[in-house]
Amino acid sequence: MAAAPSDGSAHEPHSRELYVGLMSGTSLDGVDAVLADFAPPMPALRAHSHRPFAPALRAELLALCSTGANEIDRGAATALHLVQVYADCVAELLETAQIPAAAVRAIGAHGQTVRHRPDAGYTVQLNAPARLAELAGIDVVADFRSRDVAAGGQGAPLVPAFHAAVFAAAHPRAVVNIGGIANISMLRPAGGPPLGFDCGPGNVLLDLHVARHLPEAFDRDGAFAARGSVDAALLARLLDEPYFALPPPKSTGRELFTADWLDAALRGCTAAPEDLQRTLTEFSAQGIADSVLRWCADVHDVVVCGGGARNRTLMDALSELLAPRVVLASDALGIAHDHVEALAFAWLARRCVRREAGSLPSVTGARGARVLGAIYPR
Ligand SMILES: Nc1ncnc2c1ncn2[C@@H]1O[C@H](COP(=O)(O)OP(=O)(O)OP(=O)(O)O)[C@@H](O)[C@H]1O
Ligand SMILES: [Mg+2]
Fold first, then answer.
1. Which atom of ligand 1 is nearest to 219's Cα?
2. What is the pLDDT of residues 301-352, one digit of tens each?
3. Which DSSP string do the residues of 29-64 spell out, in sequence order?
4. Is 201 in the pocket of ligand 1 (CB under 6 A)?
5. Cα 268 from chain centroid?
6. Which ligand has an atom closest to residue 178 CA?
7. Which of 23, 197, 281, 311 should be mutated for ligand 1, with most atoms under 8 A from CB?
8. Cα gap 347→333, rounded to integer Å
9. CA distance 178 to 197
10. What's the gap in Å between 294 CA and the centre of ligand 1?
11. Pairing of strands 30-37, 112-117
12. Helix (H) or strand (E) holding 373
């Protein structure tokens, strides 16, 4: 057992660097929250929480992802509802870890992306960081993406720097986060900074199709898809989307992969619902596998995080497409698949507080690395 600190306290508060990360991604499934200690060498998870969005909040967030009436008032009101969920997560983390708010250096609160248009010069994450600072009594770092966009970058993905910090190996490795959208980071032990980009849809179309056919929000464990077979003609049509042929840097979101986009691809298709689900699952896997094979075919393994790691049919399809490379969930490397993205935003908050750059211009295409985020003091 470790010797007691010389001041007689149970802990050594000054050696701790506690940060909270709050992530609510494009799937709109809810909030992933972590409390982590970033005192070197590795982030140590102290508590985690997941709060699903209430149906009304999810519906309003989804509605705000496309053009509609009175968006400013609706956006502001919805942001207040969102940060109430954020604040509830923070309270739960502190309660679980038995830590006072004052012990936490900052919260990294991503907000909810409702527009991502880097080519037009903006990206919008709905958030109310001032309100969250007031509710939590902790400094809040928010608006991580805008500075990279202002510097000419895509503002996404922002997680490759964190992936490199925690998953780098002695061999070339890819890390794939399968959220609503799937994004990839390519880590090389020697030779250049990490690369990364958004591959295309992860779960967003899978969830959409499930919601039309089952009383469920998602295809649990990929069981629905597992009952069907791939419609090769439909798969080829889906893969015709020009986004896949674009070279990086590139990022995408719900703006492109909408219900209308899916319906246009499905027009005239008579396949059974489970065959469609299987085909959409194969489509997500193929978009990811093509990204690996085209841009980092020399990787030895592919580490998967995000909710997609739970979809067995998707993971099996990836393993098959990428063999002999090993496809493994990040859990095997010590970080649970559903904690990685929230940890990344806790890590980015720490970078901001320390005035350290958080972006990788090699990933986003920005003119240079920038300190990301704005600080709202408690
Ligand atoms: N048991 C499961 N089986 C299959 N799919 C699952 C399961 N659990 C979660 N998922 C999928 O994972 C999704 C949520 O993943 P996640 O939270 O990583 O995505 P996200 O919110 O879009 O995050 P981000 O944008 O940060 O990547 C769900 O919408 C669902 O499609
Ligand atoms: Mg999520």
1. 4
2. 999 999 999 999 999 999 999 999 999 999 999 999 999 999 999 999 999 9
3. SEEEEEEEE--SSS-EEEEEEEEEPPHHHHHHHHHT
4. no
5. 33
6. 1
7. 311
8. 18
9. 12
10. 25
11. unpaired
12. none
